[in-house]
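For the sake of transparency, this paper describes our internal protein records without simplification. Because each token names a local backbone shape, the row as a whole describes the fold. One such record is reproduced below, unchanged from the form in which we store it:
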Amino acid sequence: MRVCRRAILTILTAGIVGSGAAASAQTPEQFYTGKTIDLVIGYPPGGSNDTLGRLLARHLGKHIPGNPTLVPKNQPGAGSFLAVNTIFNVSPKDGTVIGIGAPTIPLDEKLGTHGVRFKTAELNWIGRLDSLVNVVFMWKTSPVKTFADAQKFQATLSGTGVGSTVSIYPTVMNNVSGTKFKLVMGYKGSSEAMLAVERGEVEGHSTSWTALKVAHPDWLRDRSVTILVQFALKRHGELPDVPTAVDLARTDEERAILGAIMNATEVGTAFFTTPGVPADRLTALRRAFDATMTDAELLADAQKIHVGVSPMPGEELQALVAEVSNLSPALLSKVRAAYTAAN
């Protein structure tokens, strides 16, 4: 009996090992055939990240070997930290989950921001769809019409999660440039936060330029809002007369602090998958992303919904994320003071 049991155990063990080896020997096409990929969007429906995530989901699958189906899933919370933490710690490490979160997450990790449970350099970055320029805009009834006004008078802005750029960038301007923005927190996303502006609950809002122009082109057409500042290293082509936060720096120290923080605009609307994805599947996802960025159907779709496409390959994006670790201790200390202090 003992001999028989040992023989059976040996056969079962060999079968399990053999099946694992067979799975790992699959080509990306064999693996992805018939599969579904979850595209996790760390924000509520309706904002720019949701719009761009769903744009990618409509076109990426046909360029991945095996043509898997991509299913967008919103997982908002804590400025996208909930989704990023889940992808890093819980999701399968096999290339069946892709995510998008705040472009500032590499800096959040470096600064030790509350709620961070991920390591951005260990995420596998697939590619960037577009840079992400945020703005602060004020409703037409607000007495604050210029950035200089914002340095003199308190102005209320609708806010969402503490880890979101919606909240981070106005906080930075308060701490570095002396503005008097007061964040009214608790809105569930930029769509709801912008409605709060229209209802008169607050005077303005900070969100991406894409979200504003896609959700409310009429506000721009009718000059219902005034854009005070754009958060970028250089001026967006559609906003040539709006100063960047870096333009408004008064000293070299302010310029260095703001430049380090605005690097997030280069990370932009970037997509990543979990740590531990087999190298051939990661390569397949990256090359599929690159092909999607030149897909005529995607470009036509982007034009139809008024969003830009300024891609960056996954390998370059991975290197850009790693560069955050090169901030000097002295500069990092100053960035932390600007980034994390309360309004």
